[in-house]
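User: Sequence in, structure out. Go.
Assistant: Echoing your sequence, followed by the structure tokens.
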Amino acid sequence: MKKQLDEFRAFILRGNLIDLAVAVVLGLAFTAVITAVVADLITPLISIPGKVDFSSWTFAINGSVFRIGSFFNALISFVIIAAVLFFLVVKPMNVLMARYKPTPEPPAETKECPYCLSSVPVNATRCAFCTSQLDAAAELPPDTGIKSSSATKGSANV
């Protein structure tokens, strides 16, 4: 029995379970805030031109009543809540995250050695891993200042 209680305590005190519980509580509190904003601020603005209430729209087929107006009310409420969340939470958060997002460094320009398939710098004339002579003359821009291997044909390879 003690072993089961210890396992239960370890389960309850796991970090991800506590994080999930905190997220649920904060989500419920945030839902109350968003619902209040929509119900108390946004919906009255929509009904300024005239009272909008679709709940009385119904139709019946073979004695079954379809309350299509209630569906429209729920759909409109969903769209309003989604718009409020997007414009008052998501957009400002995206702007804030973009402002403080570190810019990644560009990756070093490398090429693959055709002999050992290791990654070597683009301007390399010899592979650092297998020491094979690389044909860099065709791949180098003309203003790099690096001489191609054809210029050193008369010299001995060391």
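User: And one key feature?
Assistant: The longest strand covers residues 59-61.
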